[in-house]
Design a protein that fits this description.
The complex is a heterotrimer.
Chain A lengths: L12 H30 L6 H4 L5 H34 L4 H13 L2 H12 L4 H8 L13 H25 L3 H9 L4 H12 L1 H16 L3 H6 L7 H10 L3 H23 L4 H4 L6
Chain B lengths: L1 H29 L16 H7 L2 H32 L4 H12 L6 H15 L5 H25 L3 H9 L4 H30 L2 H6 L7 H11 L4 H32 L3
Helix pairs in contact in B: 1-11, 2-11, 3-6, 3-8, 3-10, 6-8, 7-8, 8-11
Chain C lengths: L9 E10 L2 E11 L4 E5 L6 H9 L6 E6 L2 E2 L11 E3 L11 H11 L4 H14 L15 H13 L5 E5 L7 H18 L2 E6 L2 H7 L2 E6 L2 E6 L1 H6 L4 H6 L4 E11 L2 E6 L2 E6 L9 E6 L5 E2 L10 E13 L3 E8 L3 E8 L12 E7 L4 E2 L1
Helix pairs in contact in C: 2-3, 2-4, 3-4
Classes of the chains: A mainly alpha, B mainly alpha, C alpha+beta.
Chain lengths: 283, 265, 363
C-alpha cells in the first residue's frame, strides 16, 4: 500500500481562530479609520487637491515643524537622561530592583495623570515656583505652564521609560567578558565605554530613539494640557479641525501624521538589530 | 575614586527623582487640606477623598470606566487569545498581514484612531453610548493580549504537544489539558494590560463618550479645563495605586511563568 | 493483547519523506520483531529521527507504509496508535506533578482515579522513584526527569516504545547507568523498543539489532557484533568504532578469501562479494586487532603482515595507542593492551605488525 498522503483539513483551523478578531477590528477600527482618511481625497470632490495645498498652508507648516521640533527636543532629552539610568540598571545589580520600580511606577501611570502632575508642579503656585521663590531666586512666579517648555518637560518625563528600557535591554546583552577583556588589554574605563559599550548598545539606542520620536509625533493630551495655546501639535490641529467639522482637512492631516510615523518605523525597522530590540512589550 | 563613583550616582539619582517626583507630588497634594492647589500643602487631611467618594459626579464615571473595562477585558481576552493561537500557525504572508492589522493600534497615532472611530461611530449611532466605548477600547486593548499570549505560546516546547498526542490525548484534550494551562499566565497578563488600557484611555473617550457615557479620565479632563481642585489629585492617587497593583500582579505572574518554563530541560 | 507476545512487530516498507526538495527518508524498509530492542543509529540528518516521527505519527510519509502488528497505521492519528514515546528533552508537562504527568495517558484512556493512582505508583516503583509523585518536574534532576518520562511512556502498557535520544542531555556517568537500566526495563517489560541515537557506543551496548542510517537510507542492519566485525561499507566501518583503511588491488580469490596487494605486501581479507583481479578495493581492520609481530601471536590463525614505522606513541593507561605509517604513506592506528611485560615502542622505530585474516574485511 503506497500512496501520497495528502494534507489533512486542519489547515482551516488557524483561519477560523483569527477570523473573529480580524472581522471585529476591521469593522470597529480599520474601516472607520480608512473611511475617515478617504475624506482627504473625496471631499469636496475626488482629487488630491487637499494634499496639493499643504506645501503652501502656513498653519500646517508651522504646526508640522513645531511637532517635529518638539519630538526632536524630547528625543534628545530622553536619550541623554536614559543612558546613565540604563547603565546603572544593568551595572549596579544591588540597586536594580529599586531603580526598576522608580522607572515602572511612572511608566504604569496614565498619561493624563502624569500630565496633571506637571500642571501641579509647574503652576503659578506649583512646587517649582514656590521653591525658586523661597530660595530667593525669583521675585515673582515664573510662567512655565502653557509654554512650549512645559510640553517638552512633561513629554520628556512621560517618554523617558520608553528610552530606558530598550537601551537597558541592549546593554544587558553585552557579554561582560568583553568589558573585562578590554580593561585587561589596558583600556581605561572611558575608552572601554566609548569603544565597546557604546557601539554595542547602538541597536537599543536606535530602537529607543525611534520609539520615542514616533510616539512623540502623535502626542495629544500632554501638549493640550500643559502646552502653549499658540505652539500646537499636529494632533491638536487635527482635533480642532474635527471640532469645526472640517473633515477633509482633518483627514489630510491625519494621513500625513500616519504616513510620517509609518515611514519612520519602516526605515528604522530595517536597521540591523532594531527589529529585535523593538519587540518588547510597549505600553 | 570617590568622585568618579559619586558623580554618576548623583546624576542617576537626580534623573530618577525627576521620574518619580511628579507622582509623589500628586499623592502628597491629594492629602492636602487646602481648598486650592498649592504646594507644599498647609496641612493634611482626607478632605479630597471624602469629596470624591461623596460625589455622584465622580462615582458615576468611575463605575462606568470599571464596567466598560471589565467587558473590554472579556472581549479582548477571548478574541485576542483565539487570534494568538491562530496567528502562530498561519502561513507566512498571511501572518504578516493579520499581525500587522492586530498590532497596528500600538503605533498608529491615538488622534488618528480616535477621529476615525468618531467619524464612523457617529454614523452607527454609537457616540455617547458605553457600547461604542467597549467596541473601540477592545480594538485598542487587544494588541496587549495578542503579544502577551503569543509570547507564552512561543515559550512552550513544541514537543509537549507531541508528547500529549503520543500519550493518547486527542488534539482537543491536548489544547485543554496542556496548551491552555501553559498559556494561562500569558492570558492573565494580557487581560490585566487590557483592563488598565481601557480604564486609562482618554483620546477616544474624548470624541465618542459624548454626554451619555462619561468615563473617569474624561471626567478628569473636563474638570481640568475649568478648575484644578485637589479632588483630581485624590482620583489620580487612587488610579496610580490601582494601576501599580495590577501591573505588579502582572509582573509577578510573568516571573512565575518564566520560572516554570525555564527550569525545564 | 493479541497472540504475538507482549511486544508489537513493526514493518516499514519503502518509507519515504520528502521536505521541499530533499529526501529526509529515502526508501527505508525494516522488519522489527516483536520484543526486539532496535536502535536507529546515524549522524544528524541521516533520517533516523524523521523515521521515528513517522512511526509515532507526527510526520506523514510521502510514500511507503508503516504496519504495526500487520495493520497499516499511516492514516491513524498519533493519539490512536497506542505507542509510548520518550522525547529528547523528556517533554514533561511543567504544570503537572510527577504523578499527574504519569497519570496523563491513563486519564486520556478513562482509567478510574483509584486505578490510576495504583498504576502510577507501580510505574514510579519500576523506575526507582517511589514517593516522588507530588513533586513538579522542575524539582527533579535531569536523570530523574528522564525516568519519569520513561514511566509516563510505559504506564499505559503500550506494546511499542519509541525513544528519541533520551539520554542525550545527561552526563557520561549517568548515561552509562541509565543505559543498563534501559536494558533491564526492556527485559522486564518484554515490549518492542525502537531507540534513536547518534552515539555508537550507546547503540552497541543496548541493542539487540542496530540499523545504521546514512543519507535517509539504511546502510546496514544487524547485531552489534556483526556491524562491528563485518561492516559492509566504508561508512559503517568508519561510523561504528575506529577503523584502519588500506587501499589495495585485488590479485586473486581463495574460496571466500580475497587476496590483495597493499603497500607491497599480500593481505588476505574476507569479502561479501567476489571482486575481479585488478580491481581497486578498500580493506578495513580494527586498531585493537593489530599486534606487533614480535609479541605472542596464535600461530594457528591465518595472519596478515605489514612493515610499518611508528610515527606517534601515546600511553593511555589501560592501553597504548600507536600511529603507524605503512610503506609510502598509509596511516594506521594500533591499540595494544598495556602491560609492563610488553616493550613500548618509540617514535621512528621500524616494526612489523600482524593481524588475523578474519579481522580483515573488504568494504
Amino acid at each position: 500500500m503506497t500512496r501520497d498522503w495528502s494534507r489533512a483539513p486542519p489547515a482551516m483551523m488557524p483561519l477560523l481562530l483569527v477570523a473573529p478578531l480580524v472581522v471585529f477590528m476591521l469593522a470597529f477600527y480599520a474601516l472607520p479609520v480608512v473611511a475617515m482618511l478617504m475624506r482627504s481625497v473625496s471631499d469636496p470632490v475626488w482629487s488630491v487637491a487637499n494634499y496639493a495645498a499643504l506645501p503652501e498652508d502656513v498653519v500646517f507648516l508651522k504646526t508640522f515643524s513645531n511637532t517635529f521640533y518638539t519630538s526632536l527636543i524630547v528625543t534628545v532629552a530622553t536619550l541623554l537622561m536614559a543612558y546613565p539610568v540604563a547603565l546603572a540598571l544593568v551595572r549596579a545589580p544591588r540597586w536594580a530592583p529599586l531603580i526598576l520600580v522608580l522607572i515602572l511606577l511612572p511608566f504604569w501611570t496614565s498619561v493624563l495623570v502624569r500630565s496633571y502632575a506637571w500642571m501641579v508642579l509647574m503652576g503659578r503656585h506649583g512646587l517649582i515656583n514656590e521653591a525658586l521663590t523661597a530660595a530667593g531666586l525669583l521675585e515673582r512666579p515664573l510662567r512655565i505652564l502653557n509654554t512650549p517648555l512645559a510640553t517638552q518637560i512633561a513629554m520628556t518625563h512621560i517618554l523617558l521609560p520608553y528610552m530606558i528600557l530598550p537601551i537597558a535591554n541592549a546593554l544587558r546583552q553585552i557579554d561582560p567578558s568583553l568589558l573585562r577583556a578590554s580593561s585587561g588589554l589596558g583600556a581605561p574605563p572611558w575608552r572601554t565605554f566609548m569603544q565597546v559599550t557604546l557601539p554595542l548598545s547602538m541597536p537599543g539606542v536606535a530602537a529607543g530613539v525611534l520609539l520615542v520620536f514616533v510616539l512623540a509625533l502623535g502626542f495629544y493630551i500632554t501638549p493640550a494640557m500643559v502646552g502653549g495655546p499658540r505652539e500646537i501639535t499636529l494632533s491638536m490641529l487635527i482635533a480642532q479641525q474635527v471640532d469645526h467639522l472640517n473633515w477633509a482637512y482633518a483627514a489630510t492631516l491625519s494621513a500625513v501624521l500616519l504616513a510620517t510615523s509609518l515611514a519612520l518605523i519602516g526605515i528604522c525597522y530595517r536597521l540591523p538589530g532594531v527589529g529585535n530590540a523593538f519587540r518588547m512589550n510597549v505600553r | 575614586m570617590m568622585a568618579t563613583r559619586l558623580l554618576p550616582a548623583t546624576v542617576v539619582g537626580l534623573i530618577l527623582l525627576f521620574l518619580v517626583l511628579p507622582i509623589v507630588v500628586v499623592m502628597v497634594v491629594s492629602f492636602s487640606s487646602a481648598t486650592y492647589l498649592t504646594f507644599p500643602p498647609p496641612a493634611f487631611g482626607l478632605k479630597w477623598y471624602e469629596a470624591y467618594f461623596s460625589s455622584a459626579d465622580w462615582l458615576r464615571p468611575t463605575w462606568l470606566s470599571i464596567w466598560v473595562a471589565a467587558v473590554v477585558v472579556v472581549l479582548s481576552t477571548v478574541l485576542g487569545t483565539l487570534a494568538a493561537l491562530g496567528i502562530s500557525r498561519l502561513p507566512n504572508a498571511l501572518r504578516v498581514v493579520v499581525a500587522g492589522l492586530v498590532l497596528s493600534p500600538l503605533i498608529v497615532p491615538g488622534i488618528v484612531v480616535a477621529i476615525g472611530i468618531y467619524y464612523a461611530f457617529s454614523r452607527y449611532g454609537l457616540v455617547g453610548s458605553p457600547i461604542g466605548l467597549i467596541l473601540a477600547h477592545t480594538c485598542l486593548s487587544v494588541p496587549f493580549v495578542v503579544t502577551s499570549v503569543s509570547a507564552s505560546l512561543a515559550g512552550i516546547d513544541p514537543r509537549l504537544g507531541h508528547a500529549a498526542l503520543s500519550l493518547g490525548a486527542t488534539p482537543r484534550a491536548t489544547f485543554f489539558q496542556v496548551t491552555l494551562p501553559l498559556i494561562r499566565p500569558g492570558v492573565l497578563v494580557g487581560a490585566l494590560f487590557a483592563f488598565i488600557h481601557s480604564f486609562d484611555e482618554l483620546i477616544v473617550a474624548l470624541f465618542i463618550s459624548g454626554s451619555g457615557a462619561v468615563t473617569l479620565p474624561r471626567r478628569m479632563w473636563d474638570d481640568l479645563r475649568f478648575q484644578i481642585d485637589p479632588t483630581i489629585a485624590a482620583v489620580s492617587t487612587l488610579t496610580i495605586v490601582l494601576t501599580a497593583a495590577l501591573m505588579w500582579g502582572a509582573h509577578l505572574l510573568r516571573k512565575h511563568a518564566e520560572r516554570q518554563l525555564t527550569k525545564m530541560g | 493483547m493479541n497472540g504475538s507476545g507482549r511486544g508489537a512487530s513493526v514493518l516499514l516498507t519503502d518509507l519515504e519523506k520528502r521536505f521541499d526538495r530533499t529526501n529526509a527518508v529515502d526508501g527505508v524498509s525494516l522488519d522489527i520483531h516483536s520484543g526486539e530492542f532496535l536502535t536507529l543509529l546515524g549522524p544528524s540528518g541521516s533520517g533516523k529521527t524523521t523515521t521515528l516521527m513517522m512511526i509515532a505519527g507526527f510526520e506523514t510519509p510521502t510514500a511507503g507504509d508503516i504496519a504495526i502488528d500487520g495493520t497499516s497505521v499511516v492514516a491513524m492519528p498519533p493519539y490512536r496508535r497506542n505507542i509510548g514515546m520518550v522525547f529528547q528533552s523528556y517533554a514533561l508537562f511543567p504544570h503537572l506533578t510527577v504523578a499527574d504527568n504519569i497519570g496523563f495517558p491513563l486519564k486520556q484512556r478513562g482509567v478510574p482515579k483509584a486505578e490510576r493512582a495504583k498504576l502510577v505508583a507501580e510505574a514510579l516503583e519500576l523506575v526507582h522513584l517511589p514517593g516522588y509523585g507530588s513533586r513538579y518536574p522542575r524539582q527533579l534532576s535531569g536523570g530523574q526527569q528522564q525516568r519519569v518520562a520513561v514511566a509516563r511512556a510505559v504506564v499505559f502498557k503500550p506494546r511499542l516504545l519509541l525513544m528519541d535520544e533520551p539520554l542525550g542531555a545527561l552526563d557520561k556517568q549517568l548515561r552509562e547507568n541509565l543505559q543498563l537500566e534501559m536494558r533491564r526495563l526492556h527485559a522486564d517489560l518484554g515490549i518492542t523498543f525502537i531507540y534513536v541515537t547518534h552515539d555508537q557506543e550507546e547503540a552497541l551496548t543496548m541493542s539487540d539489532r542496530i540499523a545504521v542510517m546514512n543519507d535517509g537510507k539504511v546502510a546496514q542492519i544487524g547485531r552489534p557484533e556483526d556491524l562491528y566485525d563485518r561492516p559492509t561499507s566504508r561508512f559503517v566501518a568508519g561510523f561504528i568504532g575506529e577503523s584502519n583503511f588500506l587501499p589495495a588491488i585485488v590479485r586473486g580469490l581463495e574460496d571466500d578469501v580475497v587476496v590483495a596487494e597493499c603497500e607491497g605486501a599480500i593481505i588476505r581479507a574476507l569479502s561479501p562479494g567476489k571482486p575481479a583481479p585488478g580491481e581497486k578495493v578498500m580493506l578495513t581492520t580494527r586498531p585493537e586487532r593489530l599486534r606487533f609481530a614480535d609479541t605472542a601471536l596464535n600461530p594457528n590463525i591465518a595472519q596478515n603482515r605489514l612493515s610499518v614505522t611508528v610515527t606517534e606513541a601515546v600511553f593511555a593507561g589501560e592501553r597504548c595507542r600507536y600511529m603507524l605509517q605503512a610503506g609510502d604513506g598509509t596511516a594506521m592506528v594500533l591499540k595494544e593492551p598495556s602491560s609492563a611485560a610488553i616493550r613500548r615502542r618509540s617514535v621512528g622505530e621500524r616494526a612489523e605488525i600482524a593481524w588475523s585474516v578474519a579481522d580483515t574485511i573488504l568494504v
